[in-house]
Structures are given as C-alpha cells and as structure tokens.
Amino acid sequence: MSPAPGETADITNTADTAVPAGAGELLRVRDLTVGFATRRGHVDAVRGVSLRIDRGQVVAIVGESGSGKSVTARSLVGLAGDGARVEAAELAFDGLDLRRVRGRRWRALRGRRVGFVLQDALGSLDPLRRVGAEVAEPLREHRIVPSRQIGAEVVRLLGSAGVPLPESRARQYPHEMSGGLRQRALIASALAARPDLLIADEPTTALDATVQRQVLGLLRERAADGTAILLISHDLGVVTEIADHVYVMKDGRFVEDGPTRTVLRAPSHPYTETLVAAALGRGRGPARGASPHGPAPAPDPAPAPGPAPGRVVLRAEGLVKRYRLPGRGAFTAVDEVSVEVRAGETLGIVGESGSGKTTVGRLLLGLTAPDAGRVEVNGRPWAELRGPGRRTARRRVQMIYQHPLSSFDPRYTALRLLEEPLRAERVPGTERARRVAELLGHVGLGEEVLGRRARELSGGQRQRLAIARALAPRPDVIICDEPVSALDAVIQAQVLDVLADVQERLGVAYVFISHDLGVVRRISHEVAVMKDGRVVESGDIRKVFEAPEHPYTKTLLEAVPRLHRAGPADSQAILKPR
Amino acid sequence: MAKGFWPGAIVLALLAVMALFPSLFTGIDPDAADLNATLRPPSGAHWLGTDQNGRDLYARIVHGAGPSLLIGAGAVALALVAGVLVGVAAAQLGRTMDQMLSRSLDVILSVPGLLLVFLVVAVLGPGGGPASVGLAVISLPGFARVTRAEVIRLRGAHYVEAAHGFGWSRAQVVLRHILPNALGPVMVLATVTLGAMIVAGSSLSFVGLGPQPPTAEWGAMLADSQEFLAIAWWPAAFPGAAITVAVLAITVVGGHLQRRIERGRA
C-alpha cells in the first residue's frame, strides 16, 4: 500500500497535539486497525489502512461487502460499535487527534463537522418524525441558524438536495416518501450543519438510475463548494462518476490506491482487475444476441445466437390494475400493458421504482387478478383456471425474488427447500434425490450446502439456491424480480451467468424485472420500458438500447453511470468523462 | 443459557414426575386421618406437619400436585387447540367468517372472566374438569387473536407465496408453512398463560369450585387452613409455597423459551 502523497512520516502524537496539516488536508489516517471480539475470538475487520482526504476532494473506498469499508468509515466518527477496538498510529481530523475524543466531544463533531449518510435511508430516518424535523435537528442542536430561521433553512436544504416541493415534503413522514426522496432528505440532514467532511456509505445503491444521477450531482456540487466527501461503494460506475481518488479494499486491507482514472484504467492488483471486469461486463457488456466484439475482460455471459423464436409461453394483453387510494380516487399501477414471452427467451422489464414493474410480475404469476385484460399461460388464461388445474398451471410459472432469504421457509435446510416443489408433485424419494443433485448441478452448488439453512449461506449461494428451487417444477417461465440488485458486482456477474447458462441448457424463459439497465441489457433478448404503469417502448434489446425512440428511454440510458470501453479494438478499460 | 433456566427446568421436571407418580415421593396415604395427631408442627414423623384432620401435609402436597397442575395445564391445552383452530379459521376462511369469529371473541372478552368461569362451573357442576373448561373459555380469545395475527402476517410472506407456486393446496400451505412458523408466539403465550391459569385453578379450588374433598389440591388445602391460621402456620404456608414455586419455575422457563424464539425470529 503506498502512502498517500504529502504524508509526512513519524509524527509523534501527544495529547491534543495539533497535527501539522498539509495544504487543504482534512483527514489523515495511518495504520488504522479495527478489531471485534467475537465468540470465535478476536477478529480484525480492518487491518492497518492509511488514507488521506483533502478539502473539496472526493475519495472513494471500493470493495465487496464484508471487506471492511463500512467499518473503516464508522471508525472515523467513533461509531465502530460496541466491543470494537480501534487502533491507529494516526487519526487526525483537521488537526484534532480523533483517538482522544470521547463522549460529548464526539457528538459535537458528528453532525456539525462530519456528516454521515447511510445506505438504508428508511432505517436512518425516525419513522415517527416528519422529515423536516429530522433535517432541523442538527440545525437546532448545533445552533447553525437562529431558531426563527430554522423552518426556512430546512426548506432551502431539502430544495438544494433535489427534493421537489420542499415545503410540503418537509411535513411528510419517511414512509410517505419514495426511496430516492428519503435518501435525498437524509443527505439534506447530513449537510444541514455544513460539515467539512461528508461520509456517504453506499448512498445510491438502493436508488434507480435517474435518481442516482441526481444524488451524485448533489454530492459533486457539495465537493465543488469545498466539502470533502468520503464515498463508500461497491459500484465502480458510481465511483468513476465522482471520485478523485480511490482506495480498493479487500479483506480489511487497501490493496491498491491512486487517482481514480489511473487505478481503473490500469489496475495493478488482480482484485481491482476483477472488480473492473465485473463492472464492465455489467455496464457495457455485449447485449444478448450480439456477438461479443474483441476479447472481453468480463466473464462472458454466453451470448449464443438467440434461439429461434419459440412458442409463446406467457402472454399478457391489455393488463390494467388499479388500487384504491385512501379518501378519493384510484391509482392505476398498471395501464394497458401487453407483453409476450417466448420459450427460451428473456423479456426484460425496466423502469424506476413505482413504475409498475413488480405489479406486472404479480399479474403474470396469477397472484393478483387484473381489473382488465388477461394473462395466458401456454394459451390458457389464469381467469379460467380453478382448483387443481390452477395449481398445476402455477408450476409452469416460477418466481425468484430480490431477497431470496424471504422466499425460504426459515425452518428448512437447503435440501428440504429443494425437495419442497418435488414433494408437491409427489415425486418418489429416490427420484427426488436424483433431481436434487441435478438441480445443484444446474446452478453450480456443491452437495455440502444441502445440510445448511439458507441464512447460513452467502448472498450468491442463496440466489443460486433460489434459482435451483425455481427450476425444480420444470417451469416454462421464471419471473425474476430484481434478482441481483442486492448483490455485489462480482457475485452479480456470476448469478447472471448461471441464469444465462440454465436458459441455454433447459430452454426456460425469463421475465427479468430490474431497474438496472446494465443487468437487463446483459440478460435480455427483448425489453419493455415502463413508466407510470405504461410500457412506453418495447422491442429487441439492441434496437431499444442503441436507438431508443421514446424520450424517457433516452433519459434512462443517459443516466446510467458506467465504465466505458474504448472500442472493439481496445480491450483496455478507459474512463470516459461526461 | 439464561440465569435460572436450569433450576427452573429441574423444578418443573420434578413437579411433572410428582404429578404423574406421587407414590415415588411418599408412601403415606394423603387421605389417612389421624385425629390423635391434628395440627402437629413439622417434625421427623411428619416432615411438613399435619392438618386439622391429622393428615400428613407432605403427602397431601405431593398427591395434590396432579390435580392442582392439571386444572391449569388442561385449561391451557384446551384453549391452545381451540384458539389456534379459531384463529386459523378467522384468517383463512374469508371476511364474513373473520367478522363472525372475531366478534364472538370480543363478546367473550367483554364479560368479566371470573363470572364466565362461575357460569361454566355452575352449568357443568364443580370439579377439576369443569374448572379447566371454564378457564379455557376465558383464555381462548388470546390464543385465537395471536394466531390470527400471525397467520395474516405470514400469508403475505414470500415463502408462502412461493409454496403456492409449487402447486400445494391452501390447506397444505397452511399446514406446511404457515402454522409451524406461526406457533412460536402462540407457544410463548401458552407458557405465560400456564402460570396464570395454575394460580386461577387454585383460586377456584379455594372457593370450592375445583376438585371436591377429600381430594388433595393446593388451593383447597389453603382454604381449609385459614380457620386455623392463628394457631398453625404450616397448613397454609406449605401449599402456598408449592403454588409459588410451581408458577415461578414455569415463568422462568417460559421467559427463557420466549427469548429463544424471539432470537430465532430476529
């Protein structure tokens, strides 16, 4: 690990000695180690990391979940957690030795000088408090503005964080706002006290591409105003978008660091290469049906020439679904949607949250009845199917969820989970064992997982298990609702490979619902773009993504932060500033 | 392991064995009166002394464990089974059924509990069985409500949705996935209720609505002792202590189970 430029060596620290600060240097960390006492003894989550942040600089820490990114960030504000042992040779914030800060002085620092934004905006906002009160708290606590002006300041902050109609939004509760708005409100509250340093832990992970873009824009603006930003992310697309300097973290250590462009253009550590490759495959990988041009650094998604258009296995015509709103009126979640899915092909459905994607999925599954229109499974409409016939038809259409854990009975081991659909069809015992082994083979899981419960498996293993279970009834179609959104880039690529591989081998069709255009592009043959419950554009994936006709599709495509590949001849990753 | 769990569990196990096989603990006949030895204080011959009829108190407490605990345990068992059935029916059989059952539960809850128990015992006649049924009636709404809420919560769970997708019928989905996962909180309620029901059962015996004399029963023993409280403390103190110890053991073990279930759900 190379020391940050400008770092002077061997400064002995005595109590509250002012650390000589370099020009504009705000935070300096040297040899930070954070350990936790666990049942299995002492475990170091962070092992000797050093970093430096200047005023107005955007510094990113990237790495997969569990690599220690978040713990590093939390240690900087004294929130490493109960039982954590934080040690550092140097931990200086604007000349203040953070190692000696305790109790009340932390509180004066946090919120006032260091703002903190967490990934889970719903969990970070008090559900019983109006959003305005949340933003007002640091203003009042640290007496930033006279109390008469707090209301006006709250509105100004929400407005500058990109919250539309800030006056009325300030009076809403967190659950009344969308994920994107909550995240922006949280950023507004973190920025309320005009901190010198903003630590943002995965601030855009839960957000759609368009909202993500707005939030990143907001962060960039703050950096231009002199706020230093420490960004924690697993998404290289986001990092290239705004970070000046990047640290790559793996297993509690920084394996590589440097200016963002340099690190990502010419990664020197194999782990960074994997990350870049995974991000490239995701952001700009070859579309399904297209032949990959040039040697691809990404794990190849096996884009075999698309199977000859098969029979239609799932067809929806003129679907309408309305929900009654409290008080007056109704909300049309799905409006005149017609789609067709052919055997062995993938239909991608993209759109922002709230665009009706998930409702379409539920209508296709026959879990919800449409107010108008019909869904046919193998030519037979759900509405005509009753009793045993309907139960048999259900097996033809399976589902994979964003959070596989929620789709597994918590009492069951992996073996029971895989056997469950087979038992429902009364497959005899010996045949069951054979089918389970076959299913494991399809998704690349070993027999050793069978005895474990789902919560003992990793995120990637869980989603593989979910795919295997969905395959058990030998369905014609699997509806995948955001199946990889909760996974890291590397795992995402692996799970997408499994899906593509299974499709090629078994000829199963997918309806792939996602807000992530890169992922949809990689897996889909056809795509339907949804906005406000309507399909605004649909057709062949390449046609839609390369020559979008509807203005909304164009906006969506432009909003995706990503790594660009230079061209067919150049397999090097380069960054294309926007 | 939480503090006090093992002592609690051991006491509970002892009480269970005592209730089932009282002769393992004493060879003395609990009903044998000896009018030459009435109200004797604790001694080598009579470990816990004798009552006003000269019956051995230790033997009566040992033999009383069965009837005393059975009223409460029976009440909880009855209420548990009936309450779970009512709760599942309310949650699964549609709006009309839900309204009917839920309002019926409200009616039970609107009548003072003790009055309802007296009513049931008045109809069925005094005794251990009727006392159990009466107590079951007043604790049924709790079980039914908890079950109903859990079933409704789990009905929307993704894994229940997925089970429907495998082609199970509604009844099969309830039996395989909903009920087993709903039972945690119901069992917690059962252990909490058990303690209360044992006290309630003893109270019914105290007022003469439980097992009839000469059956040894802790509540009835307490009732017998009150006339002589001024001259002999032991006929009141030991049955009272027995009730206290039993309820305490159940509460400790129940609390531990509750924490375990909550941790499992988190």
Automatic annotation (TrEMBL), chain A:
InterPro entries (UniProt xref): AAA+_ATPase, ABC_transp_ATP-bind, ABC_transporter-like_ATP-bd, ABC_transporter-like_CS, Oligopep_ABC_C, P-loop_NTPase
GO molecular function, one term: ATP binding
The organism's place on the tree of life at top rank: Bacteria
Biased composition (Pro residues): 294-308
Region (Disordered): 283-310
SUPFAM superfamilies: P-loop containing nucleoside triphosphate hydrolases (SSF52540)
Composition bias, Low complexity: 283-293
UniProt keyword terms in alphabetical order: ATP-binding, Nucleotide-binding, Transport
Boundaries of every ABC transporter domain copy: 27-276, 314-557
Family membership: Belongs to the ABC transporter superfamily.
Protein name per UniProt: ABC transporter ATP-binding protein
Naturally occurring in which organism (per UniProt): Streptosporangium longisporum
From TrEMBL, chain B:
Family named by the database record: Belongs to the binding-protein-dependent transport system permease family.
Subcellular location field: Cell membrane
Signal peptide feature range: none
UniProt xrefs under CDD domains: TM_PBP2
Pfam families named among the record's database cross-references: BPD_transp_1
Name of the protein described by the UniProt record: ABC transporter permease
Keyword Kinase belongs to the record: no
Main location: membrane
Segments traversing the membrane: 69-93, 105-125, 131-147, 186-211, 231-257
InterPro entries found in the cross-reference section: BP-dependent_transpt_permease (IPR050366), MetI-like (IPR000515), MetI-like_sf (IPR035906)
Domain ABC transmembrane type-1: 65-254
Membrane topology: Multi-pass membrane protein
Record key words, sorted: Cell membrane, Membrane, Transmembrane, Transmembrane helix, Transport
